[in-house]
């Protein structure tokens, strides 16, 4: 199994200390997380996209470019790119640029996002989200794979003979399809034969299993080999490790209570009655290393995922480092041995080292 550390750049008061990062401090915090993730051997670091407070993740390509400048190996993910509201021309340009600046380390996870408040900002309705996503992705693929593209659709102005610049550095920028709640996302992933990333955040395992099963079924329908399906998964949005499960629960409970107290939207409401219920029956990873490993193995047996993403946002900076290090040293090595992964087997492309000769005048 391979691992990604990720951030949605949520900036709220710490549930224990009451302290809040300034905007500048939160940006610096995310950069530190990414550097630490590379140092600890995580294979990827992801930045989400949200367009309203208390999130600061409105511009993932800019943040990921800053991370690219501070790292050399780790892959850079978007978790997720809210393509349902974005101009595919702008997306093609921004991420092809980042592809070059990172030396071919960028991979997109696309989706419609989990915050309906962004739709009025970008001029579409919530009812249009899936049609918009499908149309915009079809155009994005053409812009990256073709030159002199002519196109006409519903969600942006007509294009005539357009070749976006720069062209991507990678032969093909990898794209995953984020899946949280609907078979529309799994259908789109299957149609293109591309990897699926299950959010696995709020609901019971069975809900996400149904979506992943649908993805594999539809892969076969579209002529792709379901046995070669590539699936990634989130992990309940939170992780907290301690030497014993009892200690982990005690230390994490204030964070859990504060986070779930902020959830107001119907689709964000947890089906679990409390933290213990979530630990026992939900996706959250809280407990001893042995307990967390057992749970991840259980989810893998159902999902068949080769990649797992975790987040340490919301904790103090000291706890963020503690938890990332604990996971990297006590959990990840066991799972890398237990679960084979064909994802990210090769190192990212190295930047071209073209020499430039400057003649003296």
TrEMBL record:
InterPro entries: Bact_Lucif_Oxidored, Luciferase-like_dom, Luciferase-like_sf. Keywords: Monooxygenase, Oxidoreductase. The keyword Oxidoreductase applies. Residues 8-303 form the Luciferase-like domain. Pfam families: Bac_luciferase. SUPFAM superfamilies: Bacterial luciferase-like. It comes from the Bacteria. This is LLM class flavin-dependent oxidoreductase.
């Amino acid at each position: 199994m391979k691992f990604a550390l990720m951030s949605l750049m949520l900036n709220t008061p710490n549930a224990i200390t009451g302290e809040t990062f300034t905007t500048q401090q939160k940006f610096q915090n995310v950069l530190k997380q990414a550097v630490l993730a590379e140092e600890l051997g995580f294979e990827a670091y992801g930045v989400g996209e949200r367009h309203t407070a208390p999130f600061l993740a409105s511009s993932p390509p800019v943040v990921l470019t800053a991370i690219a400048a501070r790292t050399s190996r780790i892959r850079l993910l978007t978790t997720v790119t809210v393509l349902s509201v974005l101009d595919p021309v702008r997306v093609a340009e921004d991420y092809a640029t980042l592809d070059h600046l990172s030396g071919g380390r960028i991979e997109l996870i696309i989706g419609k996002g989990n915050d309906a408040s962004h739709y009025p900002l970008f001029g579409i309705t919530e009812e249009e989200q899936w049609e918009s996503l499908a149309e915009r992705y079809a155009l994005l693929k053409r812009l990256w794979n073709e030159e002199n593209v002519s196109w006409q659709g519903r969600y942006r102005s007509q294009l005539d003979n357009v070749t976006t610049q720069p062209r991507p550095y990678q032969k093909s920028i990898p794209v995953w399809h984020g899946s949280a709640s609907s078979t529309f996302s799994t259908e789109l992933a299957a149609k293109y034969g591309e990897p699926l990333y299950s959010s696995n955040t709020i609901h019971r395992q069975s809900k996400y299993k149904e979506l992943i099963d649908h993805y594999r079924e539809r892969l076969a329908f579209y002529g792709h080999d379901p046995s070669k399906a590539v699936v990634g998964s989130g992990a309940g949005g939170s992780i907290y490790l301690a030497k014993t499960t009892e200690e982990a629960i005690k230390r994490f409970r204030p964070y859990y209570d504060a986070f779930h107290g902020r959830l107001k939207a119907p689709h964000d409401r947890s089906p679990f009655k409390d933290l213990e219920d979530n630990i026992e029956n939900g996706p959250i990873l809280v407990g001893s290393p042995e307990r967390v490993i057992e749970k991840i193995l259980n989810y893998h047996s159902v999902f068949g995922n080769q990649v797992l993403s975790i987040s340490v946002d919301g904790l103090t900076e000291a706890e963020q480092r503690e938890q990332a290090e604990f996971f990297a040293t006590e959990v990840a090595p066991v799972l890398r041995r237990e679960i084979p992964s064909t994802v990210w087997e090769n190192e990212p492309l190295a930047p071209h080292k073209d020499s430039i000769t400057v003649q003296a005048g």
